[in-house]
Amino acid sequence: MVELNMTVAELIEKLENLDPDTLVILSSDSEGNSHSPLADADPTHYIPERFGLVECIHDDDLPDYPEAEPCICLWPTR
Predict the structure, then answer these.
(1) Residue 46's beta-bridge partner residues?
(2) What element of type H or E holds 15?
(3) Residues with Cβ < 8 Å from 65, sequence gap 6 or more?
(4) Residue 54 binned pLDDT confidence (cut-offs 50, 70, 90)
(5) Which are the contacts of 34, defined by CB distance < 8 A and separation ≥ 6?
(6) CA 44: distance to chain centroid?
(7) How many Å apart are CA 47 and CA 18, to the nearest integer?
């Protein structure tokens, strides 16, 4: 079962013994229907469970969303 709420500390623990040159691949969903290499990772903020989804927001929009929490957003190449 895939952990649904992974923290940076948990991700570091999973990555710390890997070769630093290992490619990072993202799945588009928990069933693994499609995959894409990681393009970028942005420290940002998110709005928890908005309309049933988690939404990453731009820092410029933070004043409009006091409920926003820090996160890192991983962006696929496709």
Answers:
(1) 56, 69
(2) helix 8-15
(3) 45, 47, 57
(4) confident
(5) 27, 28
(6) 10
(7) 31
Which pair of tokens denotes residue 36? 């894409």
Q: Count of alpha carbons within 13 Å of 11, Cβ hemisphere only?
A: 9
Encoded tokens for 14: 């999973």
For 20-28, the CB contacts below 8 A with 24+ separation are 24/74, 26/74, 26/76, 28/76
Q: H or E stretch including 10?
A: helix 8-15
- DSSP for 36-49, please give it: EEEEEEEEEEEEEE
pTM score, whole prediction: 0.69
For residues 74 and 44, give the distance between their C-alpha atoms in angstroms, rounded to a whole number: 10
- Rg from Cα positions in the chain: 14
